[in-house]
């Protein structure tokens, strides 16, 4: 082949390394001459002069032409193999390929893969012993099988085997994650792209499982908990909603109900409490009717999930008596059917939230400790994403118990020190499990800051409150009160610092600076409260209203400014249009400055975080609820994770929104 032929073929391949390698393989094998290769590259209905001009033909078209030449030259068996392998959306092992191809001989599969690899249609990672299709090859194959009955059948069969293979892998990883969290997480990360396609495919073509038996629902509950940890909330919602539709289309009412329960939990995490209640309300009517003729373990556990979700929502809405009954019913079923189980531990944790909210701290602590101990027996280590939340909740109970004793008394100090120990342990575990930087971490920081303030260690508390706010800003979900509360919390700290400085005449200027910072945080907190809507304000709303009046007096604002704030608070309570930063003449600039301050790097933060003065000690530790909203209950998706945020390990429990909390410490 002369230089001109070589240059023309490179032009025809669009200078793509992949296309050049594919054509080079043909030329090396002698299956095609340089002239024939060039002829095929410049056809496809285009003139030679146009085809040789890269600007007139897209690089992708040139590559697909090259791939088509190679693909068409393959025997039918290898065509089917390639189309089957295109179901993988990420890298895969030879064993996985063997399963998807339905081969009975791993050796034959390995030889087939080697042959396809030799044609430059498959890449091989020698270090990790994994194969992968180039993205463009995968795209080409997704279209190449259409129009061929043989290849369509190959793709369909591959999808069925793919669903089965990753269903089993999900079950295995869910078991492994209990005792070997990091290993399971690492394996999931390698398979993340394939799991994403599994979620998408199973929502349309997945097999409907019979959930009447305890073993089936127990196994799949663990899988769903695994998904809750590693997938984003968007992915989980699509999965459960899709699986529910498939079950409904096949007339499997129990499977449909169970999937809709998990779908409703994702809505709770998004803060869509009314939507979740509507789903659960319909399910309870159906399940109650089914219970007359069906008393299987599967039906009882599906009822338990309905009770749990409804109880969780009622906790958020401060209907604690009704939520307590529902959660106790949930616990009764789970202890009878599941016994020691992650779901049972989460229900115990949620019951702890209820008792915490009604100020029965000792009993709340017992439930949180029981949840912790149950999970410890199951996992036999602390490498599980729910543990940091349970530890945080126990710490919050000790904080609340410390508030019941006189300040600086031995009893108060002992409980506060215990609270700090639990918070530190929770944070260290978050870091170890790579869960730090999410809402659970913000809860730990804020709770620890609150306890330090009660101990009058204001300077130690200050940076923690700022770190918590920084996370709240980054992870904020519209409609949730977490950001408003974090802003008020930090603002109240500056109010206290101002009061502290004002006691010293030589620090009058420093006091005014603190009051200005306080006002700016309060301004932004008020805007967030207004955005929440009428009747949806956080539990700090009236304290914010009270403290705004205090700081306005400290700054000697006139009556006109005070009236503007009164009108703004009134709009929050009864409704009406509002514009951010319209409270007084310097609020807009202050708001932006405040945001910059709250978003500073941790190392450069310069604002204090001591909570309010002794008059505010009566505040209870804040308590989160059941899964992701703001406070974490037994793990969050992160986000979640998802969720939703990007999926991270450590989002598998229950976190409750801060709405229901009465103090600064939060439960998770």
Quick structural gist:
This protein is mainly α and 668 residues long.
Describe the fold and architecture.
The protein is mostly helical and 668 residues long. The protein contains 29 helices and two strands. It has a two-stranded antiparallel sheet with strand order 1-2. Helix 26 (508-532) crosses helix 29 (587-598). Residues 44-58, 585-632 and 635-663 have low confidence and may be disordered.
Radius of gyration: 30 Å
Fraction of residues in H or I helices: 55-70%
- How far is the N terminus from the C terminus? 70 Å
Give the overall form.
globular
Distinct helical segment count: 29
Q: How many beta-strand elements? A: 2
Mean pLDDT over all positions: 79
The description of the largest β-sheet is:
2 strands, antiparallel
Name the strands of the widest sheet in spatial order. Answer: 1-2
Structural class: mainly alpha
Uncertain runs are 44-58, 585-632, 635-663
Strand content: under 5%
Summary keywords:
two-stranded antiparallel sheet, 29 helices, about 0% strand, about 675 residues, globular, mainly alpha, single chain
Topology:
Elements: H1 3-12, H2 17-29, H3 34-41, H4 48-51, H5 59-73, H6 76-85, H7 94-101, H8 106-118, E1 123-125, E2 130-132, H9 135-144, H10 149-179, H11 181-190, H12 192-205, H13 214-230, H14 233-249, H15 253-269, H16 273-290, H17 297-316, H18 320-337, H19 342-357, H20 361-379, H21 387-403, H22 410-432, H23 439-454, H24 458-475, H25 482-502, H26 508-532, H27 541-554, H28 559-574, H29 587-598
Helix pairs in contact: 1-3, 2-5, 5-9, 6-10, 7-8, 7-10, 10-11, 10-12, 10-13, 12-14, 14-15, 15-16, 15-17, 16-17, 17-18, 18-19, 19-20, 20-21, 21-22, 21-23, 22-23, 23-24, 24-25, 25-26, 25-27, 26-27, 26-28, 26-29, 27-28
């Amino acid at each position: 082949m002369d230089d001109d032929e070589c240059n023309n073929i490179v032009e025809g391949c669009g200078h793509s390394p992949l296309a050049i390698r594919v054509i080079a393989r043909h030329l090396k094998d002698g299956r095609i001459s340089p002239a024939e290769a060039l002829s095929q590259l410049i056809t496809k209905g285009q003139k030679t002069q146009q085809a040789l001009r890269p600007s007139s033909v897209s690089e992708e078209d040139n590559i697909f032409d090259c791939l088509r030449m190679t693909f068409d030259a393959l025997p039918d068996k290898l065509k089917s193999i390639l189309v089957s392998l295109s179901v993988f959306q990420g890298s895969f092992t030879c064993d996985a390929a063997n399963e998807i191809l339905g081969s009975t001989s791993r050796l034959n599969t390995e030889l087939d893969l080697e042959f396809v690899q030799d044609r430059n249609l498959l890449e091989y990672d020698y270090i990790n012993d994994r194969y992968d299709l180039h993205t463009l090859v995968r795209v080409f194959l997704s279209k190449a099988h259409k129009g061929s009955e043989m290849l369509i059948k190959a793709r369909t069969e591959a999808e069925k085997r793919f669903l089965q293979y990753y269903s089993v892998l999900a079950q295995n990883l869910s078991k492994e994650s209990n005792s070997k969290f990091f290993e399971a997480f690492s394996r999931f990360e390698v398979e993340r792209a394939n799991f994403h396609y599994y979620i998408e495919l199973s929502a349309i073509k997945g097999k409907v499982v019979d959930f009447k038996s305890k073993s089936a629902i127990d196994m799949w509950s663990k899988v769903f908990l695994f998904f809750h940890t590693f997938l984003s909330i968007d992915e989980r919602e699509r999965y459960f909603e899709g699986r529910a539709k498939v079950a409904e289309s096949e007339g499997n009412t129990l499977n449909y109900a169970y999937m809709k329960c998990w779908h409703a939990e994702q809505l709770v995490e998004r803060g869509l409490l009314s939507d979740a209640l509507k789903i659960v309300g319909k399910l309870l009517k159906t399940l109650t009717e089914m219970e007359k003729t069906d008393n299987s373990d599967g039906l009882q556990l599906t009822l338990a999930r309905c009770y749990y979700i409804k109880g969780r929502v009622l906790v958020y809405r401060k209907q604690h008596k009704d939520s307590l009954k529902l959660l106790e019913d949930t616990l009764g079923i789970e202890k009878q059917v599941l016994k020691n189980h992650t779901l049972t531990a989460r229900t115990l944790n949620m019951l702890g939230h209820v008792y915490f909210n009604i100020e029965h701290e000792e009993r709340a602590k017992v439930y949180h400790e029981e949840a912790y101990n149950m999970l410890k027996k199951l996992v036999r280590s602390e490498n599980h994403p729910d543990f940091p939340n349970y530890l945080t909740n126990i710490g919050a109970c000790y904080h609340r118990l410390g508030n019941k004793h006189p300040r600086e008394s031995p009893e108060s100090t002992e409980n506060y020190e215990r609270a700090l120990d639990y918070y530190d342990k929770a944070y260290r575990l978050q870091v170890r499990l790579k869960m730090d930087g999410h809402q659970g971490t913000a809860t730990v920081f804020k709770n620890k800051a609150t306890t330090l303030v009660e101990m009058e260690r204001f300077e130690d508390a200050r940076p923690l409150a700022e770190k918590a706010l920084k996370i709240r800003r980054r992870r904020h979900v519209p409609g949730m009160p977490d950001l408003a509360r974090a802003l008020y919390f930090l603002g109240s700290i500056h109010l206290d610092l101002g009061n502290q400085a004002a006691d010293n005449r030589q620090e009058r200027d420093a006091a005014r600076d603190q009051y200005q910072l306080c006002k700016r945080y309060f301004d932004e907190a008020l805007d967030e409260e207004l955005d929440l809507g009428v009747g949806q304000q956080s539990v700090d709303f009236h304290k914010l209203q009270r403290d705004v009046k205090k700081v306005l007096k400290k700054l000697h604002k006139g009556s006109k400014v005070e009236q503007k704030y009164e009108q703004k608070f009134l709009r929050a309570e009864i409704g009406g249009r509002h514009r951010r930063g319209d409270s007084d003449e310097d609020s807009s600039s202050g708001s932006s400055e405040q945001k910059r301050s709250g978003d500073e790097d941790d190392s450069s933060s310069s604002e204090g975080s001591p909570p309010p003065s002794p008059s505010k000690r009566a505040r209870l530790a804040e308590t989160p609820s059941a899964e992701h909203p703001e406070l974490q209950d037994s793990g969050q998706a992160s986000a979640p994770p998802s969720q939703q945020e990007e999926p991270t390990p450590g989002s598998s429990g229950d976190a409750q929104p801060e709405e229901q909390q009465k103090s600064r410490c939060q439960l998770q």
